[in-house]
Structures are given as structure tokens and as C-alpha cells.
Design goal:
about 475 residues, alpha/beta, Rossmann fold, 3 domains, 21 helices, about 10% strand, globular
Length: about 475
């Protein structure tokens, strides 16, 4: 039986054991409902780091930030509800002003949570949770299955937050649920034209950093304003940017030395200061500089330009990382959240007739192969387990560090047919069986090989 089915059965059994406890039953039912939902991804970070901007870029529509927890779910039509206290949720209006969507919650003194249903393709596979800056790790992760953590550079407070996210026995043995994001990448190096390339290099260095690597599965860089522009660029904005691009590069550059010069009266083309101010607020000085350069280079239609912005802003890499580490691992992440919830319940309301369930929980956490894979990936990335370089790269790939589909695990970058995949898999299985049986290899080497062998054996039925 697969891990997600085992954990689902445990939730149902726990409901039967605690049926006479309203509090426990409510807790379990909320987690049963959560188990069938898309992956919940919390977006967290310090104040003014750009959480709402990144959320808007992922959704493809720009939303004005709120100071509450804001959940974005998929829906057939735009709707929003405010949850305040223990009463029933209140439906509120969503209006559009100044190019942004605004959830009108002004009549509520306090909103514990705002839930926005929105017809967006991204929200079919994930629920995005925009979190307030002052929220604690417990508040952020209590309702989430995975975490996008935004930062400018890795500082002590960032490491403390990420460590707190894994400060639980179950979380420590299955801690693959975090992607770190170097936000506002366009501000690296004082906004030089090569800022995005520099940010990508810094992200690569952090992926190998011994302090960061054990706490997250990937580090990517994103320029939030550019990412939003890539998804929401309007015709009037594109027309204005084309006018700016008609200026010579040096001439325009002189007026991009500061915001005051850009919106000043001495601008060399007839364009209202209010229009230029709006461009600055939407794209920033760096964005205006980059977009006009791209238009001059031949990306002179909206389709061409937005494709370049998705690539250069880091939004494409971020979406790929969410797919590989979160949505493809939905069943594992949901099982992990449910096991954490069961552990909390058993600690808060211990019962004699729940002892079997408690033992089952310990057994599943210790022995489930999905969690063994996650532990192996974390151990290899953190350097706790060492393999020769060529074996380490293959072990990480087979264990799902680069994606969980058979094609990704086997290293195909094209749609190989079943015969090709099976041949590659059998070749890998024989090689890793030999590694697992090598009596001269260190113990951690053989244990890692045993996990990879079990992964290969589990892939075989999929390729018949």
C-alpha cells in the first residue's frame, strides 16, 4: 500500500478512536479535508521583501497586499471571504483600481484569514498563502504543506526561521518541503544591468552553502516586479515602453540615473510625468532599463517581450522548482502534514486505545520509503553521506531531487519511450545493487545504495 493510502487509513482510524471528543474530531476532520486539497504553499519572509509581488506573479494577476493571512485558491469565478473570530465567513467585494485587484476588507477591524478564490491555472495545483511579516514559524507552517521563504541575503534571522520550520521529530526525518528565494534580484549590485545574472550566481552559491543546504531543497532568484510585468503587461504600458526604447541608449540612460530625473520636466520625448511615474512604480528603474534594451534587441512585440521577462526574472525557474519539489510530491507532503497533525493529537490527548495508532505512526515515519528517499537527498546535499561524485549525482537524481517522474529520475531530457527507460533503469539497478553489496564500501555508502536500489525496484512496475 502506498504511503498516502496508509496515512489516509490512519486518519480514518483516528476519527473512530476519538469520535467522542469534539475538539479532536474537528481537528481530524480539518486534516481529512486538507488531505484531498492541492498542496498548500506558504510564502513567508521579512517586511517589504516582496511576498505579495511574488504571489501575484505566480497567479498572473496583481493583488494589493493585505496585513492578514491571505489564501489564494482556484475557483470558477472571483470571490473573497473574510474569516474573523469564530463566526461565519463574510463575503467581500474584489475591485480593480490602478491596475491592481483590491480585496475590500475595510469594514472588518480584524481579519484572521482572507480566502480569495480565483480562476488561475497556477491555483489548480497549489493553494498560495501570503503571510504577514510578523507571523511566527508556527503560524506560517501550521496550515501549510510547503514553504517559499523570501530573503535578500541569508542572515541569522532567516536561518533561525528555516531551522524552526524543521524543529519537530517528524519534520526532521522528512524535511524536504522548503524552497528559498532570493527576492528583489534586480536590486543586487545597485541595480546594474547584470544584476539578474549576479543574483543567479549568488543563488547557486547558497545551494552549496553548508548552513543553507540542509534547510531547503533549492535556492532560486526572482525579480518580483519583472515577474509581475511578465504576467500582467498591458498594451498601454508596452506602447509607452516602445516610445522610450526609441531613444538612444545613452540618452535614455542619462534620465534613468534617478527617479527624479526620469519623471522630471526635461524629458526628451513627449510623455506625461504621471505616465513615467506609473512605469517606475510598476517596473522600477532597473525594469525600465532592461525592457527598453530588450525592445531594441528585437523583442518588440508583447509576446516576445513577456517570454523574455519570464525567463530573465527567474519566474520560470521558480515555477519549475515549485513543480519539482512541491506539486510532484503532493502525496508525500500531504502525508507528512497529516502525520504531524496525528502526532500533535496523540501528545495533546493521549489515550490507551490510540496506542496502536501511535506505534503505526512511528513505524511509518521510520520505514516509509518515500521518507527514506527524502532523508537520503538531505544527507547527500548536506554532506552527511558522501559518495563518489559521479555516483552522488546519479543517486540524487534517482531519489527524486530533480523531479519524481521516471523520465526525470532516469535523466532523460526528451520523451524516451518505455523500452529506453526500462533499459536505463535496469542498468542503474544492476549498478546500485553492486554498490549495496560491496563489503569494502563504508556503511553509509551501502545504506544509500540500498535506498537507491529500492527506488529502482519501485520504478520497474511503472515501465511495464
Amino acid at each position: 500500500m502506498t504511503l498516502d493510502r496508509v496515512v489516509w487509513s490512519m486518519l480514518q482510524e483516528a476519527l473512530a478512536v476519538y469520535r467522542d471528543s469534539p475538539r479532536a474530531t474537528g481537528w481530524l476532520r480539518s486534516h481529512v479535508e486538507r488531505y484531498t486539497e492541492p498542496v498548500r504553499v506558504a510564502v513567508a519572509g521579512r517586511s517589504r521583501i516582496g511576498k505579495s509581488t511574488v504571489v501575484s506573479a505566480l497567479i498572473g494577476d496583481e493583488f494589493a497586499p493585505l496585513s492578514s493571512f491571505v489564501w489564494y485558491r482556484g475557483g470558477t469565478e472571483p470571490r473573497a471571504h473574510v474569516f474573523s473570530g469564530h463566526g461565519r465567513p463574510h463575503e467581500v467585494a474584489v475591485s480593480r483600481r490602478g491596475g491592481r485587484h483590491h480585496v475590500e476588507i475595510g469594514q472588518f477591524d480584524r481579519a484572521d484569514r482572507v480566502v480569495v478564490e480565483w480562476p488561475a491555472r497556477t491555483l489548480r495545483d497549489v493553494v498560495l498563502i501570503d503571510t504577514p511579516s510578523e507571523a511566527t514559524p508556527e503560524q506560517v507552517l501550521g496550515e501549510a504543506d510547503a514553504l517559499l521563504y523570501l530573503m535578500r541575503h541569508v542572515q541569522d534571522d532567516d536561518l533561525k526561521f528555516l531551522q524552526a520550520a524543521n524543529d519537530h521529530p517528524i519534520a526532521r526525518v522528512s524535511n524536504v518541503h522548503t524552497v528559498a528565494v532570493l527576492a528583489r534580484a534586480d536590486e543586487i549590485g545597485a541595480g546594474r544591468i547584470d544584476a539578474l545574472s549576479s543574483a543567479k550566481q549568488i543563488a547557486r552559491r547558497y545551494r552549496r552553502d553548508v548552513a543553507v543546504q540542509p534547510l531547503c531543497q533549492n535556492v532560486v532568484s526572482v525579480a518580483g516586479l519583472l515577474a509581475v510585468a511578465a504576467r500582467t503587461l498591458r498594451e498601454d504600458e508596452f506602447a509607452a515602453l516602445r516610445v522610450l526604447a526609441s531613444l538612444g541608449r545613452e540618452e535614455l540612460e542619462d534620465h534613468l540615473l534617478s527617479a527624479d530625473r526620469f519623471v522630471g520636466e526635461q524629458f526628451p520625448v513627449p510623455m506625461e510625468p504621471a505616465v513615467r511615474q506609473a512605469l517606475l512604480e510598476r517596473f522600477g528603474i532597473f525594469g525600465v532599463r532592461l525592457i527598453t534594451a530588450l525592445i531594441r534587441q528585437g523583442f518588440d512585440t508583447q509576446v516576445k517581450l513577456t517570454g523574455q521577462l519570464v525567463q530573465r526574472s527567474g519566474l520560470g525557474e521558480l515555477r519549475d522548482s515549485i513543480a519539482i519539489h512541491f506539486t510532484e510530491r503532493r502525496e508525500i507532503l500531504k502525508a507528512r502534514s497529516a502525520l504531524l497533525a496525528l502526532d500533535v493529537l496523540f501528545r495533546m490527548e493521549p489515550r490507551q486505545n490510540a496506542r496502536k495508532l501511535m506505534a503505526d505512526l512511528e513505524r511509518v515515519v521510520a520505514s516509509a520509503h518515500d521518507f527514506r528517499e527524502l532523508r537520503l537527498v538531505a544527507a547527500l546535499q548536506a554532506g552527511r553521506t558522501k559518495l563518489p561524485a559521479e555516483l552522488q549525482a546519479e543517486a540524487l537524481r534517482l531519489a527524486g531531487a530533480e523531479g519524481t517522474t521516471p523520465l526525470a529520475r532516469l535523466g532523460f531530457d526528451y520523451e524516451a519511450d518505455v523500452r529506453e527507460q526500462r533499459e536505463a533503469l535496469l542498468d542503474a539497478l544492476v549498478r546500485w545493487q553492486a554498490q549495496a553489496a560491496d563489503v569494502h564500501a563504508p556503511n553509509d555508502h551501502r545504506r544509500a545504495a540500498q535506498v537507491v536500489v529500492r527506488t529502482c525496484e519501485g520504478l520497474l512496475p511503472q515501465l511495464r
